[in-house]
Amino acid sequence: MASVIRELRRRPGLVLRPIAISGATLAAATVAIAVLQAVARIPAAAPVYLLPVLAVGVACGTVSAVATAVISFLLYDFLFTQPVYALTVRDPNEWLDLLLYLAVAVAIGRLAALQAERATEASLRAREAQALFRISRALSTSGSLSQAARLVLAELAASTTTDRIWVGLGSTAPAEQTLADTASGETASRDTASRDDGAPPQPVATWVVVLQRTPDDEPAHWTRTHVGSRARMPTGQGESAIHRIRIEVPGEVLGSLWIVRGPTDGDPDRVETRILSAAADQLGQAVRRDQLARDALEAEVVRRSDGLKTALLDSVSHDLRTPLATIRAAAGSLLDPAIRWTEAERRDALRSIDLEAERMNRLVRNLLDLSRIEGDALRPELEPHDVDELVDRVVRRIATGKKVRVDLPPDLPPILVDDTYLDEVVTNLVENAVRHGGPTIRVGALESRDGGVVVITVEDDGEGVPDADLGHLFEKFYRVSRRGEGSRRGMGIGLTVANGLTLAMGGTLAAGRSPLGGLALHLRLPSVAIPPEPALVAASDRS
């Protein structure tokens, strides 16, 4: 009874509307009956009163229809039954007529009210289904959890009576971080003292109304709950009620859906409660999916990182073990007093040690360069350099039994590069051709037709690279499967380092097929315009 009185005080229209409709329709029916009896001489016009009963039943429900039926019964008895203007009936047969009329009026009012209630319930269910569909669609099509939360809150604000809604994520209310808020539409901290997104501070109250849900089919209900001893912050909303719905999955509380309603709105009705409860459940599943996706991504990153580390360690250990074994064997033989060496053999052994040490040095340098490339720590010092000088230096340094042919035009312009970086790039390209190519290797260069770029090409006459592998040559640890290589396949970082150093100098490195039949690597680098000689300028001026 107390809840009914509170509802009537909160919504006085619940009483005034039925009274107004019933009074107007009964007055019209009374006038109609009087006219029918006086003009048309119809003695029994009581069924006219069924029209107000029907209208009130459709518009206001069963209770109002039954009350209207009783009032119409009393009006007809008082105004049109002998003796008039008295609630007594002279003829006992008229009592039967009046009671039958009352029963029919109550039945019609009840049926009309039930039909109206069913129509209203169907409309509410349709509104609820549409709202839940839009919420589900927002959660399934949004690119991020925060975007989906903002769309869900916008839908809840349109489907329910609320002044403000926000979503907080955290295991407890004080620890929650705001994911979305209808007051700002942006992500913000739940700490009201540190919010700078332009939204008003979130209200903090000692008491909130919490939705208590049961695992069975029992309907959820709202319960006033004490949440702390903090004083309410000024919100500009008077005595607005704060409602909370926990966002949870089995065994874990993920956050809360917070709702601020006006002081006269009371608790959400059944439809609003179902919408809010379903939205909280779907938000909980979305948060859980987001957490699982992040965990899966982190696990995949760790797995790939472990795979790369394993590949790196395998390759490094293999590539280091071979030169170390050669160095130890040569050094041990040189130190063995039982072995007599000629001067030429001693020089060959020392040269072998030097070559294997240089090979180890290049391996370590490539690893260091790779780490600098990945850490974006390359700082090239770009200066003009002659192409032929840099290329000849690399070719002379690389010892190989293969024929390396250098074909450089004499009129090539200087290129703007870091000589140390370019030395490493060309070294890696030539060594790649020496390792995987045929007996002939060609290093050429030409200036692009539109100028401004010099293209250095390193190509071989080997078996080449399959078309499917050309696009992956510059990927870290990528190695092309070749016949007869066994386990000596290299680490797969030489071309990666060459590509990274080239990009740092403002150039590009591309792979393709060579006219020789093998692989061609094209190194494009910016050139520098050569200013005219002063003597030639003076001579041209005199002429």
Quick description:
This protein is α+β, with helices and mostly antiparallel strands.
Secondary structure elements and pairings:
Blueprint: H1 2-10, H2 13-38, H3 50-60, H4 62-80, H5 92-141, H6 145-159, E1 164-169, E2 177-181, E3 207-212, E4 221-226, E5 241-249, E6 252-261, H7 270-335, H8 343-374, E7 383-385, H9 387-397, E8 403-407, E9 415-417, H10 419-436, E10 440-447, E11 453-460, H11 467-470, H12 494-504, E12 508-513, E13 519-526, H13 534-542
Parallel strand pairs: 3-5, 8-10
Antiparallel strand pairs: 1-2, 1-6, 3-4, 5-6, 7-9, 10-11, 11-13, 12-13
Describe this structure in words.
Residues 1-9, 185-197, 229-238 and 536-540 have low confidence and may be disordered. This protein has helices at 2-10, 13-38, 50-60, 62-80, 92-141, 145-159, 270-335, 343-374, 387-397, 419-436, 467-470, 494-504, 534-542; strands at 164-169, 177-181, 207-212, 221-226, 241-249, 252-261, 383-385, 403-407, 415-417, 440-447, 453-460, 508-513, 519-526. It has 3 domains: 2-135, no CATH class; 144-194 and 201-290, GAF domain (Beta-Lactamase, 2-Layer Sandwich); 383-526, 2-Layer Sandwich (Heat Shock Protein 90). By secondary structure, the chain is an alpha+beta fold. The strands form 3 sheets. Strands 2-1-6-5-3-4 form a 6-stranded mixed sheet. The protein has a 5-stranded mixed sheet with strand order 8-10-11-13-12. The protein is rod-shaped. Helix 9 (387-397) packs across helix 10 (419-436). Strand 3 (207-212) and strand 4 form a beta hairpin.
The string of secondary-structure elements, in order, is: HHHHHHEEEEEEHHEHEEHEEHHEEH
Rg calculated over all Cα atoms: 46 Å
What best-fitting shape do the alpha-carbon axes yield? rod-shaped
Separate helix tally:
13
Helix content: 40-55%
Quaternary: single chain
- Amount of beta strand: 15-25%
How many β-strand runs? 13
CATH classification, class level of the largest domain: Alpha Beta
Number of domains: 3
Which strands sit side by side, in order, in the main sheet?
2-1-6-5-3-4
CATH superfamily membership of the largest domain: Histidine kinase-like ATPase, C-terminal domain
Mean pLDDT: 75
- Classification by helices and strands: alpha+beta
User: Which spans have pLDDT < 50 for at least 5 consecutive residues?
Assistant: 1-9, 185-197, 229-238, 536-540
Distance between the termini: 117 Å
In this structure, how is the largest beta sheet organized?
A: 6 strands, mixed
Write the CATH fold name of the largest domain: Heat Shock Protein 90
Under the CATH scheme, the architecture of the largest domain is: 2-Layer Sandwich
